[in-house]
Amino acid sequence: MLPAHARVLLLRHDRIGDAIVSTCVLEVLSKQRPGWKLDMVLGKENQHVLDGDTRVDRRWLYDKNPLATIRLVRKLQAQRYDIVLDLMDHASTTSMALVRLLEPAVTVGFQNPRGYLYDLPVPPRARKLTHVMDRLGDLLAALGCAVPEGSPRVSYQPSAESREFVTPMLQEWRAGAAWICGVNTSAGSASRYWGTENYRAFLGTAAAESPEGRFVVLAHPSDAPRAARIAEGMRGVSLGLSVPSFDSFAALVQGMDFLVTPDTSVVHLASAFGIPAVALFASGIKAVNWAPYATPHRSVIAPAEDFQRIEPAAVLQAWRSILAERP
């Protein structure tokens, strides 16, 4: 029997999208285990994603530096956590080391091929058959939470400051437009860049077919010059301006009516905000794992895992299909 009141540490020190999907765990625990104090270990890449999430009491940074890691372990040991919940969906040496060194009363995590046994081990379902959200639901079930299949929800709420910051941009784009479609051109790796000419071919045809709407090219600030080349001279297409934080970017995404994206962090925001999306994936297995959850979407799979080989016609077909479902 798990205690009604406990200090709980969640491990999620990997990517931005992983932190976003983990909000489903925060949502369930905050409602079904209100006496639990939730802390979280995040990585350098995703450390600021949950800055505004009031369900997390304290955030710890793991940055792979040996001396910093030693200091982190000592600080975590001083907290004397009752439960450590390893959210990592793959075998992580760092997670296993932290679980051992912190010596909590209860450890929870996915069984892994390296042989480490948690107190509450969860058999991982096959990635080619199950969405990551359902696998996280299995972890919650091991904690005694009621999580019916298909019920976990991604939740993210941009701050009032971020929403206020992006409001003028959204108002400008929405003026005279029946809807706005955000076309995100950045992804976590260069291999997932679809290509400037592919984006222009898609946007040129889609904008001509749907003059009642507005397409907005979105990108990470480091990809701004490339995004400008994509949007240049295209009727019905605007260039999204760079924003100062992930939270303000999320607020920008929240203002969209549709999304097209190769990046899973944006896919998860689509799930959080219920925005119909066209998502580009390297493989069918990745689509099963990471597609928008409980949200209208179409997945486009890259031939031979090569994004450059995705034909604009395939994305256009998916876009037309998702647009046709608009009330």
Q: Give the oligomeric state.
A: single chain
Average of pLDDT? 95
Q: In which order are the strands of the major sheet placed? A: 3-2-1-4-5-6
Can you tell me the CATH superfamily of the largest domain?
Answer: Glycogen Phosphorylase B
Helix and strand content put the structural class at: alpha/beta
**Share in β-strands:** 15-25%
Work out the helicity level: 25-40%
Present the secondary structure layout.
Layout: E1 6-12, H1 16-21, H2 23-32, E2 36-43, E3 58-62, H3 66-79, E4 83-86, H4 93-102, E5 106-110, E6 120-122, H5 132-142, H6 160-174, E7 180-184, H7 196-209, E8 214-218, H8 224-231, E9 237-239, H9 246-254, E10 258-261, H10 264-273, E11 277-281, H11 284-290, E12 297-301, H12 312-324
Parallel strand pairs: 1-2, 1-4, 2-3, 4-5, 5-6, 7-8, 7-10, 8-9, 10-11, 11-12
Commentary on this structure:
- The chain is an alpha/beta fold and 327 residues long.
- The chain has 2 domains: 6-142, Rossmann fold (3-Layer(aba) Sandwich); 160-324, Rossmann fold (3-Layer(aba) Sandwich), CATH 3.40.50.
- 39% of the residues lie in helices and 18% in strands.
- The protein is built from 12 helices and 12 strands.
- The chain has helices spanning 16-21, 23-32, 66-79, 93-102, 132-142, 160-174, 196-209, 224-231, 246-254, 264-273, 284-290, 312-324, and strands spanning 6-12, 36-43, 58-62, 83-86, 106-110, 120-122, 180-184, 214-218, 237-239, 258-261, 277-281, 297-301.
- The strands form 2 sheets. It has a 6-stranded parallel sheet, with helices on both faces. It has a 6-stranded parallel sheet with strand order 9-8-7-10-11-12, with helices on both faces.
- The radius of gyration is 21 Å and the shape is elongated.
- The N and C termini lie far apart (48 Å).
